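Practice problem 4.
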């Protein structure tokens, strides 16, 4: 990079992308002033209601003693918050790279503002985990591999597709679920503040890619959709299954419940019924995740694209087609 290249930075003039930078300031929050860190985080408290937990809505789980359910739910929350704090640092790295790679003023500004947000989110999750006062479970190999793939990305469009579009859209439902189910006021407050920032990050991904799609040929658009649509359709229908059941049974065991392994078949059977109900809500268009809305807003679900990819009759694609 030479100084001369920075002398007349071009702005795309995109009103939505430019407004992201102003909103990052007008909706800014201060981690010390706007968050009451003196709020207690009690040691035995589940901090979110049990319905939040994977398998938490099954009758078998509901029949467990309160202290077992609290332990399982709290461990699950610690695990997710630990993944989120790592994810924040990954996102901060990507934004720093984007700021050095993107060549338009408004794009660079959005990336720099996001990097600041992610630094604050990282601090917030780490402080909350410290207040929980226990060693969180290590992050799972699948998530670690996904973050490594993202960190190895050099192409800006690929970085934005992966981080701002895919991961931020996927994570929005995780943030909203923790916020909705949080019973600890400190957790609820930080999730409300963080989610507000994350919707801007997702917004940048959607607006940037929608703009790219407008200028791309049908062939380019189909190839781009092909790279993401399979993963999106898998993600929005991914529900708790046998792997997660093993994790829950292990935590029930850790909580000192005898014969935890014997609960596994009933937990799984009941969860499968709940999964089918959630699928039905999705297919009827009554519970559409952010990731699917983002895919639609970017233009990945336009008829000529879904036809070219042969997914027009996929129940999720049909449900998204009904979105306004
Ligand atoms: Fe974040
Ligand atoms: Fe973010």
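Answer key:
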């Amino acid at each position: 990079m030479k100084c001369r290249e920075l002398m007349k930075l071009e702005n795309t003039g995109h009103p939505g992308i430019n407004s992201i930078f102003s909103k990052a300031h007008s909706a800014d929050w201060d981690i010390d002033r706007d968050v009451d860190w003196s709020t207690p985080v009690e040691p035995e408290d589940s901090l979110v209601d049990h319905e939040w937990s994977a398998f938490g809505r099954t009758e078998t789980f509901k029949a467990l003693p309160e202290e077992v359910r609290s332990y399982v739910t709290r461990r699950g929350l610690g695990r997710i918050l630990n993944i989120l704090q790592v994810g924040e640092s990954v996102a901060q790295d990507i934004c720093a790279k984007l700021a050095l790679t993107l060549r338009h003023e408004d794009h660079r500004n959005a990336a720099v503002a996001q990097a600041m947000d992610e630094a604050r989110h990282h601090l917030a999750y780490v402080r909350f985990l410290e207040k929980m006062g226990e060693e969180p479970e290590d992050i799972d190999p699948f998530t670690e591999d996904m973050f490594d793939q993202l960190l190895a990305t050099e192409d800006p469009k690929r970085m934005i597709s992966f981080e701002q579009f895919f991961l931020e859209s996927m994570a929005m439902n995780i943030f909203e679920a923790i916020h909705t189910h949080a019973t600890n006021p400190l957790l609820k407050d930080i999730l409300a503040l963080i989610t507000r920032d994350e919707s801007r990050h997702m917004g940048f991904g959607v607006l940037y890619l929608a703009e790219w799609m407008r200028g791309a040929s049908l062939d380019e658009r189909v190839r781009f959709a092909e790279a993401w649509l399979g993963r999106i359709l898998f993600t929005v229908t991914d529900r708790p299954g046998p792997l997660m059941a093993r994790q829950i049974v292990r935590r029930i065991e850790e909580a000192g419940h005898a014969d935890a392994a014997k609960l596994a078949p009933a937990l799984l059977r009941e969860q499968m019924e709940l999964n089918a109900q959630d699928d039905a809500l999705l297919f009827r268009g009554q519970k559409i995740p952010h990731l699917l809305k983002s895919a639609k807003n970017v233009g990945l679900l336009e008829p000529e694209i879904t036809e070219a990819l042969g997914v027009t009759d996929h129940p999720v694609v049909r449900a998204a087609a009904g979105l306004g």
